[in-house]
Design goal:
The structure holds two protein chains of two kinds. Chain A has six helices and no strands. Chain A is mainly alpha-helical. The longest helix of chain A has 36 residues. Chain B has three domains: 106 residues, no CATH class; 147 residues, Immunoglobulin-like (Sandwich), CATH 2.60.40.420; 103 residues, Cytochrome Bc1 Complex, Chain D, domain 2. In chain B, a hairpin with a 4-residue loop joins β6 and β7. In chain B, α1 crosses α3. Classes of the chains: A mainly alpha, B alpha+beta. At the A-B interface, α4 of A face α5 of B.
């Protein structure tokens, strides 16, 4: 095996979906973060629309109070942990290596891994909406004891997903 | 005094600017602005708010004036050359001193107001305020109404909330038993909670105070005019957070004494009723009213509850199970859940009625009749 063929293989990148799943390129990972952030922005934004539709006039029209509180809570969590933080990380991943003249992020495989935790954490957070008792309805500041003793069972999933969202960057 | 003069001077200066600049665009300003309220403290808070507001306006206008002037006057097309000096101690001292003076100038009046707001010493009367999901309890600790204690629950009909009836004037701001205080007395409020964090807020008093379980926060007021002042719970406390208003009624001293006497007489009459034997029909009628006031928020008006959050009464394990267990859970609550100990909240008559109603309403038809004396025995 000559050195030339080894060199060629080194440049053989996976294509299709595997390119995105296995990428260690800081720009690709930045792009993934930005797309995730954008999708979460739309989901969180849709929840804001539910809130505003209910508040459009006094009284109860569209949703019941418990679901309304779930919407305000999930909107806050999704916007902070799902949209703003990954959005910032996406821009940082894209720009900072270029700004400081580095060839890539340090520990590029870990950079890939930290992104791919996000979709699972985000899915787990959104899935609480479909659990018995509903999603978290105690405000995104989750003050105890409303968020502990008085919270629905899905709170365990919410706590785990917020931890994952937190350390995926 | 200085602050007030400064405020007046600044107000009149900018008032003039606004009048000439924008015509009557500020006509609705009072509606958008912080409300002045009805007490000395709320007026102090309002004055402080306006003082700080106008300081911010002056700082903002001054900074942007310099900025815009510099951009236009020293632009490249006019041949401006950048200065080449490296540092200037004079400039640094000036831009440290000015913000320092501005901040201290704001901190002094702010601290004064805050201290007055927190000074609950030498109160004439104390009332303990306890937040519950989702109502308020008021207990009079001293004065003419000593030992009077009651719950204050929303009275706005469901039809108004659901939009099938015209909304009333005080929609979601009306309760069955308002907290009543005498005017011209310094009232101290001791505020705590039975379950989650609530916040007791009457905007006209100029403050709100968190009700935290396990802690007692305090606040005070002294009202000048008899009247009804309305507020709300101001900390998200669960499903019916928007449905636990505060209604504060200020009465003259004579009217307050009369009210206190009436409350005590009412409590005595209720104690007498607890020793009588009630008929099933009377218990069912009273029980339905008690249920709708105290239970329907969680267990729902149709007794179905909310799956996964609040268990249903209709066909529920407790309501068709052994009677003694049913009475026990209603009187003592269920620790670790939202089920409160209603023994501390309701009279024996109310408890007997509501248990009877729960065991025979919603198609439960157990045929059990609970007398007030049964509750007295079970306590």
């Amino acid at each position: 095996m000559s050195t030339a063929t080894t060199h060629d293989e080194h440049h053989h990148h996976p294509t299709g979906i595997m390119r995105w799943i296995t990428t260690t390129n800081h720009k690709d990972i930045g792009t993934l973060y930005l797309w995730f952030s954008f999708i979460m922005l739309l989901i969180g934004g849709a929840m804001a629309m539910v809130i505003r539709a209910e508040l459009f006039q006094p009284g109860m029209q569209v949703v019941d109070p418990n679901f309304f509180n779930t919407m305000t809570t999930m909107h806050g969590l999704i916007m902070v942990f799902g949209a703003i933080m990954p959005g910032m990380v996406g821009l940082a991943n894209w720009l900072i290596p270029m700004m400081i003249g580095a060839p890539d992020m340090a520990l590029p495989r870990m950079n890939n891994w930290s992104f791919w935790i996000l979709p699972f954490a985000g899915t787990m957070l959104v899935s609480t909406l479909f659990m018995e008792g509903g999603g978290p309805a105690f405000g995104w500041t989750f003050y105890a004891p409303l968020s502990t003793t008085f919270a629905p069972d899905s709170t365990d999933f919410f706590i785990f997903s917020v931890h994952l969202l937190g350390f995926s960057r | 005094m200085f602050a007030r003069k400064l405020r007046l001077a600044v107000c009149s200066l900018w008032g003039t600017v606004i009048l000439f600049g924008t015509g009557n665009a500020f006509a609705g300003f009072d509606e958008l602005n912080l409300r002045r309220g009805v007490t000395d403290i709320s007026n102090q808070v309002y004055d402080l708010h306006m003082l700080i507001f106008w300081i911010c306006v002056v700082v903002c206008v001054a900074v942007f004036a310099v900025l815009i002037y510099s951009i236009f006057t020293h632009r490249k097309s006019k041949g401006a050359k950048p200065a080449t000096f490296h540092e200037s101690t004079t400039v640094e001292i000036i831009w440290t001193t000015i913000p320092f003076l501005v901040l201290v100038g704001m901190a002094i009046p702010a601290t004064k107001t805050l201290l007055a707001l927190e000074d609950t010493r030498d109160a004439d009367m104390s009332i303990k305020v306890t937040g519950y999901q989702w109502k308020w309890q008021y207990e009079y600790l001293d004065g003419p109404a000593e030992d009077v204690s009651f719950f204050s629950v929303l009275t706005t009909p469901r039809e108004q909330i659901e939009g099938t009836a015209e909304k009333g004037e005080n929609y979601l701001l009306e309760v069955d038993n308002p907290i009543v205080v005498p005017i011209n007395k310094k009232i101290r409020f001791l505020i705590t909670s039975n379950d989650v964090i609530h916040s007791w807020w009457v905007p006209d008093l100029g403050w709100k105070q968190d009700a935290v379980p396990g802690f007692i926060n305090d606040g005070w007021t002294e009202l000048k005019e008899p009247g009804i002042y309305r507020g709300k719970c101001a900390e998200l406390c669960g499903k019916d957070h928007g449905f636990m208003p505060v209604v504060l009624e200020a009465k003259t001293e004579e009217d307050f004494a009369q009210w206190a006497a009436d409350q005590k007489a009412g409590a005595a009459a209720e104690a007498a009723a607890a020793t009588q034997t009630w008929t099933m029909d009377d218990l069912m009628a009273k029980g339905e009213a008690v249920y709708n006031t105290n239970c329907a928020a969680c267990h729902q008006a149709n007794g179905q509850g909310i799956p996964g959050v609040f268990p249903g009464i209709a066909g529920g394990a407790v309501s068709i199970g052994p009677l003694a267990d049913h009475i026990d859970i209603v009187v003592n609550g269920k620790p670790g859940t939202a089920m409160q100990a209603f023994g501390a909240q309701l009279s024996d008559v109310d408890l007997a009625a509501v248990v009877t109603f729960e065991r025979n309403g919603f198609g439960n038809n157990t045929g059990d009749v609970v007398q007030p004396s049964d509750i007295t025995a079970a306590r």
